[in-house]
Design a protein that fits this description.
Elements lengths: L1 H21 L5 E7 L2 E6 L16 H20 L8 H6 L13 E7 L3 H23 L3
Antiparallel strand pairs: 1-2, 1-3
Helix pairs in contact: 1-4
Amino acid sequence: MFARRHALLVLLALIALLSSAHAASPASFCKCTCFTNSTIIHLDDPSPYSSKSGSSKSDSSKSSGSSLFSRAKDSKKTGRTCNDCNKKFCLDYNLPICHSAKEEDVYSECFQRDSAKDQAVVVIFITATVSLLIYAAARPR
């Protein structure tokens, strides 16, 4: 009876762990390289755009900045993807290392880190393997 109850609790814990990891997605990053300096930007972070971002630039930059601000608000709702990681994104992010850079001076690269789901699969595999080894060593012969 005790073994059955214990097995049920372990099963419920594994199901809870899998269901929480199922919705996880890998973290995306954009690596912006201007000249020889690089910066890594987390694509899920809020955008640095503000309504004051175009204040020191010309009027055409102000309208461009405001459209970027509205696009940034939209992407904040939906989240940015690797498709958003391009030279224009790096230049529009207003990085200090890209202050005087032109589009040909910029290189962008997107990469992703392991998701929580991948980590959960590894932890479950290790836990199951260790549990089976302990059971095999402790069971009566």
